[in-house]
Amino acid sequence: MASLSDGSPPDSTIATSATPTGAMPQIHWTTPTLLFGSLLVGTLFALGHHLFYASLDGKAAAAALEDHHLLGMDLSSQQINTAAGTAFAFLVRACLTWSISIAWFQILIWTVATRGVASTKLVHLDVMTSALHDLVSLVSLGAWLRRPWLWILALVAWLIPIASILTPATLSVGIDFPAPIYMNVPNVDFTSLNLAAPMAAGNDGSESISFHYLYAGPSLSVQQITNVVSAHGTIIPVAAPSVNSSWDLDFHGPSLDCAPVAADFRQMVLANVLDYTSSLNTGATPNRSYGPGYISWHPPSMVPDQPASSNLPFVLININSTSPADNLLNNAYTSGLSSSDMASVFLATTPTLFSSISNEDYYGPALCQGMPWYSATLAEYYSTSTVLRCDVHNATYHTTFNISNSEQTVSINERDLVDTALITIEQVSANFGSSNQTHPDLQPQPCSTESIGTLNASAYNSSLNCLFDAVVLSTISYQAIMHAFIELVTGMIALDLEPNFDTVITSTTQLSNTVLAEAPELAFLQPFQLKNGNTTMSLQERAPLWNQQPYAGLVNAAAAPNSTLPFQQALEQLFENITISLMSAPDLQPNSSSIYYPAKTKVTLATRENIYIYAAYKLWLAYGLAIAATALIAVCGLAAMLANGASFSNSFSTILRLSRGAQLDRKVQDADLSGRAPLPGYLEKATVRFSQEQVLGGDQKRGYTLVDMQAPKGV
């Protein structure tokens, strides 16, 4: 029989002993550090995952455009954020799994080697060592019947990675409205000189350092906007911050307040109009009839508490040569308007004077005193006429702008009027110095703040020291808007029958070019094509009167008024629309360098956009359960480590050292020494016993058992 190198026979069981050279077993610091360090790092990665998703919550999610490039790949922001979330989940799972694997090995050593277990079946030991990476091992109930608590820990360890699947899904992309933001919105700077036309100096400044500047009407932008709005009747769209947005805007601005005049003054106005008409019809031209249907006027000097007779539309200079007074607002200013003039206008409709009768030879006014075809009565004239007075007031507007798909809607929620009507300003003074020093070279000395104030009769006061009057600026702006509005409505529309029976429509107003002509009180104007100046009735205007063929149907009848808004309200609404439409003009916007620059307004952006939606509670529910379960297993691992009196690393060298002292109740055949799968049947029932003294250490000697591998067949 051959012998081993030490002289022992190969087929005999020989026990040798060796004195251990290692130190007594102890808990090395690396194992508990890695056990709880990996748990802590995993918790920190979970916190980082939460903070990353929280930073995206509510933010706009860019469209899935390939706007990033990495390693030759085109990636979108959504893809990058999703990948980052998945990476966080992977790192959390890796750290928690690491902590569990360390704890599991300590528990396994305690279970099979140090808690006094006589022996463990080899197949059961296979099941327990592979429990963390082989799911099938969990159904090998034979290995777990005596260790159910260990099976529960293994099951929990398998469930923990589910958190890494659920947590990336806590960030999703949804459609929502973005949060309101504060930003500058279109407005109009009434506290500026932008709304008035250039104001020329009224003096050369050689006698004083105070310059006087004369009001000269509205600016070009105000005139253009007034004309556009009056023609269409709608508010001009503003430059919205977004195609779908809304905001509330409160601002101070002018407002037109119209009301019927007092009964006694109404009687005076209608009598004055009738006297004027009668003077033309019965004076020097007895065969002429003249019927005004619309009249609007602004008296040259319209001051408070002046006699009512001063506010009448016509001044009868001569019974045979009376003509309508030309009282346009700008003419009143250039002819020496008093600074106490009121920004007001009168309007009257007299449909009875304008209504007509017709026959083959005549088409003219129905109310012509002294004419044989006279058909209307004075009672009808007084009952159907309307006389209004409109004044400009300072008001506070409460408005809501809503832009939907670039379509603008403006709602005036409330309008608070100041009781006192606006008093106009004829001229202003601008003081450029703090003393009454003269400047013969006409170059005024500048000062830090330009002083703007109403001119009074007193001499220049050097103590003003560059005072600034903001009310004067807003007053000039308001009267400029009213000026442009009055230029639209003042004048007259009349039906005139010349001595030769030639019928003429006389119009000296722009009213017919505005939406005001659609008011019910002016419905009598609809059959006529009105133009400024004297215009005889055109062929199209006469054709509807001819009902016989072939003339019938040559001209469509004039469309009926499409507005049911009374004339009084139509005037107020048009003025409101003009005021708000001024916000559409770039040159009327507030200047950012002005001390009156408005604060930013909260704007709600109604544009639906893709945003990130983060469900934080779902993430922490998943991570919380996973971290708590891992912590529980880690504590069990620490307890096992303390019970073992030593720490063990899950490495091959540890397995090798443990196996050298293990006792197997079956001999392993030479053919099975390779360790290849599967486990031979005769070894499935083999039991392994680890020496408790070997694991815990002690004073006794420990040795290795060499087993004869030539076991009989069938064992």
Set down the secondary structure blueprint.
Layout: E1 15-18, H1 30-56, E2 68-70, E3 73-75, H2 77-114, E4 120-121, H3 122-129, H4 141-144, H5 148-159, H6 162-166, E5 171-176, E6 181-183, E7 210-214, H7 220-232, E8 245-260, H8 263-282, E9 289-297, H9 329-334, E10 344-349, H10 351-354, E11 356-358, E12 363-365, H11 378-384, E13 386-404, E14 407-421, E15 427-431, E16 451-454, H12 470-489, E17 491-497, E18 503-507, E19 533-536, H13 539-542, H14 567-581, E20 601-605, E21 609-614, H15 616-644, H16 652-660, E22 663-664, H17 681-684, E23 687-689, H18 692-696, E24 702-705
Antiparallel strand pairs: 1-24, 2-3, 4-23, 5-21, 6-20, 7-15, 8-13, 8-20, 9-10, 9-17, 10-13, 11-12, 13-14, 15-16, 17-18, 18-19, 22-23
Helix pairs in contact: 1-2, 1-15, 2-5, 2-15, 5-15, 7-12, 7-14
Oligomer: single chain
Which stretches are low in confidence, meaning pLDDT under 50 for 5 or more residues running?
Answer: 1-21, 205-209, 283-288, 317-339, 356-375, 432-466, 531-535, 698-715
Bin the helical content. Answer: 25-40%
Rg for CA atoms:
51 Å
How many DSSP helices?
18
Strand fraction equals 15-25%
Number of strands: 24
Largest sheet: number of strands, sense, barrel closure? 10 strands, antiparallel
Task: Give the overall silhouette.
Answer: rod-shaped
Terminal-residue CA separation = 24 Å
Helix- and strand-based class? alpha+beta
**Average pLDDT metric:** 74
